[in-house]
């Protein structure tokens, strides 16, 4: 079934003339033609053995804590601590965009959706009462957090970013993962996601307990409890869930299966339009309860997705976003920026955020 849905989605992309990870006229994606800078890399993060970073990792963490790094990237002997500028972070963005354009033999043709999910799961562990969790720390490098059921499949995203980390060793994993989440939204045709650095990598002791991320089999009360714990209101919860215009569920990861719409590598408001316009029937299959569209039986919705139209307060926002893509893009950008910054002790101000240039 998974491959049938995948073929349907690929067939749509082919018949619509869109290459995977390519933009429609409305959401034109850049023609990414730069040569790959792919290089050999370890498939595990240096922290992969889970209890230690390795000597150079500890060195970086120490440097990171001081907020300065020595930039040893083939340049002349450094004269002092390397303090990365916006231009340096744009280089990281460009390298991610290049890799996204070149590594198309994955899922529906793009790693973008799984990068968006990595940034969200790194950030969505935040608990406003205790100040624990959030993207600061990148503790998903370590078991047990990497093994939490909700994080199944995110190794693909972490591994995808390893060559970027090797190319720019001065960036912390926590900054890299969130920058990649911002880059992926922009490169897949979504709104600009302003971003700022300042996250330090933590150690295994900072791993969050299992159960902080949402469970897709639950209802509106669960959504409010989980996102309320992070500090979001109803409108923000609905906007964030619009990221389900991207990617798909995988039977071998979450147990659920299929894409939410016909263009899973293009950021759109389709998730909301389909929630409102389609009829969704319970799928008859040997898997967890999920829903399928009456029209083609190739798309899916999770129980938590349908909770967004069953609950009246949520539904008014679903309808707003279904009607007006610009409103959705603006409100999504604002709340995704907020998500990626939860619990981060920035020294910079919000107005210091960088707006990255999307690739041409
Ligand atoms: C009630 C809240 C949410 C629930 C229950 C939920 C659940 C899920 C599940 C079960 C999957 C499928 C994973 C797989 O099998 O690979 C998924 C995928 C995804 N989620 Fe969510 N999610 C929620 C909110 C969000 C938010 C807030 C974002 C981002 C802002 C997001 C972004 C994504 C993306 C991009 C994918 C596709 C990943 C891929 O293609 O590999 N989700 N989500």
Automatic annotation (TrEMBL):
Subcellular location: Mitochondrion intermembrane space; Mitochondrion matrix
Metal-binding as UniProt keyword: yes
Reaction catalysis annotation: 2 Fe(II)-[cytochrome c] + H2O2 + 2 H(+) = 2 Fe(III)-[cytochrome c] + 2 H2O
CDD domains documented for this protein: ascorbate_peroxidase
Stored Pfam families: peroxidase
GO terms for MF: cytochrome-c peroxidase activity; heme binding; metal ion binding
Plant heme peroxidase family profile domain span: 108-360
CC terms in the record's Gene Ontology section: mitochondrial intermembrane space; mitochondrial matrix
Role according to the record: Destroys radicals which are normally produced within the cells and which are toxic to biological systems.
Subunit structure, as described in the record: Forms a one-to-one complex with cytochrome c.
Record-listed E.C. numbers: 1.11.1.-
Entry keyword set: Heme, Iron, Membrane, Metal-binding, Mitochondrion, Oxidoreductase, Peroxidase, Transit peptide, Transmembrane, Transmembrane helix
GO biological process terms on file: cellular response to oxidative stress; hydrogen peroxide catabolic process; response to reactive oxygen species
Record-stated family: Belongs to the peroxidase family. Cytochrome c peroxidase subfamily.
Transmembrane segments: 53-72
Gene3D superfamilies reported for this sequence: 1.10.520.10, Peroxidase, domain 2
Protein's name in the database: Peroxidase
């Amino acid at each position: 079934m998974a491959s049938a849905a995948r073929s349907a989605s690929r067939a749509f992309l082919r018949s619509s003339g869109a290459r995977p990870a390519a933009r429609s006229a409305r959401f034109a994606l850049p023609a990414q033609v730069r040569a790959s800078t792919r290089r050999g890399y370890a498939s595990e993060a240096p922290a992969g053995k889970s209890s230690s970073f390795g000597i150079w990792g500890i060195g970086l963490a120490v440097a990171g804590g001081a907020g300065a790094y020595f930039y040893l990237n083939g340049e002349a002997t450094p004269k002092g601590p390397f303090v990365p500028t916006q231009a340096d972070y744009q280089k990281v963005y460009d390298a991610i965009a290049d890799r996204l354009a070149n590594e198309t033999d994955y899922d529906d043709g793009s790693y973008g959706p799984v990068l968006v999910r990595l940034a969200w799961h790194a950030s969505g562990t935040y608990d406003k009462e205790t100040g624990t969790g959030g993207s600061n720390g990148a503790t998903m490098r370590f078991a047990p957090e990497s093994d939490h059921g909700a994080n199944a499949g995110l190794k693909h995203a972490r591994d995808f970013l390893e060559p970027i980390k090797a190319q720019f060793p001065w960036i912390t994993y926590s900054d890299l993962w969130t920058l990649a989440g911002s880059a992926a939204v922009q490169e897949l045709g979504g709104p600009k996601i302003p971003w700022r650095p300042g996250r330090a990598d933590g150690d295994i002791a900072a791993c969050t307990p299992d159960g902080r991320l949402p469970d897709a089999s639950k209802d509106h009360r669960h959504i409010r409890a989980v996102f309320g714990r992070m500090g979001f209101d109803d409108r923000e919860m609905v906007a964030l869930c619009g990221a389900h215009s991207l990617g798909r569920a995988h039977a071998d990861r979450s147990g659920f299966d299929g894409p939410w719409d016909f263009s899973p590598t293009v950021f759109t408001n389709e998730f909301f339009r389909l929630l409102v316009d389609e009829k969704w029937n319970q799928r008859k299959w040997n898997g967890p309860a999920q829903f399928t569209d009456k029209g083609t039986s190739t798309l899916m919705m999770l129980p938590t997705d349908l909770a967004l139209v069953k609950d009246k307060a949520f539904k008014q926002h679903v309808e707003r976003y279904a009607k007006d893509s610009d409103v959705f893009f603006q409100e999504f950008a604002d709340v995704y920026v907020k998500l990626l910054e939860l619990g981060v002790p920035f020294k910079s101000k919000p107005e210091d955020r960088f707006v990255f240039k999307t690739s041409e």
